[in-house]
UniProtKB/TrEMBL annotation:
UniProtKB keywords: Cytoplasm, NADP, Oxidoreductase, Phosphoprotein
Recorded GO MF terms: carbonyl reductase (NADPH) activity
GO cellular component annotations of the record: cytoplasm
EC number: 1.1.1.184
Keyword NADP: yes
UniProt lineage: Eukaryota, Metazoa, Chordata, Craniata, Vertebrata
Name by which UniProt lists this protein: carbonyl reductase (NADPH)
Species annotation: Sula dactylatra (Masked booby)
Gene giving rise to this polypeptide: Cbr1
Broad class of where this protein is predominantly found: cytoplasm
Length: 276
């Protein structure tokens, strides 16, 4: 088994994930795994970094596929005995003009952004070594979507005692409410992406709390962040930040020094803790 530190980035064949891997290759003292659901796109991305003189390793990971997640888990367990840095970056967003029914957009978006991210965490968080760093890439849209929720929902999502089961129930309820076209009446905002990212931010707060309760002495720091508005296939060419600039806050959180005792359980943008 290798003692080399290891970092894993999801959805890293392009966009912000690719830029996070690029930065980690330069700054992280260990093996950096660029993961992608499509091996062809993933290997091509690794080759691109190689041309820049950077060494990333590749492992397949489709966060929608439990088998794929577990294959990565087993690989990390066997080769490294765990992992040191996990960046949950993979995500999707329907384009504004997409004509797919809102209920379909809700189900598909939540499936990847919330449930897929959560499944990766269920399998990989127990493997995170002491002094490990976990970064869940959320969005400022999670904050604006929270503001668009009913007072009752806002209270639940801001609660310091909400459980993961309760959050899962709420995320499922949103999808079901969209199918019955009652989501607005039930207090939800009209954004599937926004609700999925509320899920990611609240999940991060819960996970940090669980780490405090169960692994206090392990000094693991886990946070959610927004990369900013970044020029990628998702956000389009008008966004002001380059992918490398978008990677800055996630990479800052992934590389928090071993003597840092925070941030932990926070939501950050531009390397600054934001009020949730
Ligand atoms: P992007 O260019 O569309 O890249 C998304 C990445 O996620 C791609 O590599 C994609 O792989 C991957 N992915 C999607 N579904 C996946 C799955 N099931 N399993 C594994 N990988 C999957 O988007 P981006 O702008 O870089 O976004 C990265 C993250 O930042 C997302 O979580 C996004 O919500 C968040 N974010 C972005 C912005 C922005 O302005 N760009 C702002 C706030 C937050 P394929 O190539 O195979 O599709």
């Amino acid at each position: 088994m290798s003692n080399v530190p290891v970092a894993v980035v999801t959805g890293a064949n392009k966009g912000i994930g690719f830029a996070i891997v690029r930065a980690l290759c330069k700054q992280f003292p260990g093996d950096v795994y660029l993961t992608a659901r499509d091996p062809g796109r993933g290997q091509a991305a690794v080759s691109k970094l190689q041309e820049e003189g950077l060494r990333a390793l590749f492992h397949q990971l489709d966060i929608d596929d439990l088998q794929s997640i577990r294959a990565l888990r087993d690989f990390l367990k066997e080769k490294y005995g765990g992992l040191n840095v996990l960046v949950n970056n993979a995500g999707i967003a329907f384009k504004v003009h997409d004509t797919a029914p809102f209920a379909v957009q809700a189900e598909v978006t939540l499936k990847t952004n919330f449930f897929g991210t959560r499944n990766v965490c269920i399998e990989l968080l127990p493997l995170v070594k002491p002094y490990g760093r976990v970064v869940n890439v959320s969005s400022m849209v999670s904050s604006s979507a929270l503001g668009g929720c009913s007072q009752e929902l806002q209270q639940k999502f801001r609660s310091d005692t909400i459980t993961e089961d309760e959050l899962v129930e709420l995320m499922n309820k949103f999808v079901e409410d969209t199918k019955k076209s009652v989501h607005e009446k039930e207090g939800w905002p009209n954004t599937a992406y926004g609700v999925s990212k509320i899920g990611v931010t609240v999940l991060s707060r819960i996970q940090a709390r669980m780490l405090n309760e169960k692994r206090k002495g392990d000094h693991i720091l886990l946070n959610a962040c927004c990369p900013g508005w970044v020029r990628t296939d998702m956000a389009g060419p008008k966004a002001p930040k380059t992918p490398d600039e978008g990677a800055e806050t996630p990479v800052y959180l992934a590389l928090l020094p071993s003597d840092a005792d925070g941030p932990h359980g926070q939501f950050l943008s531009n390397k600054t803790v934001r009020t949730w």
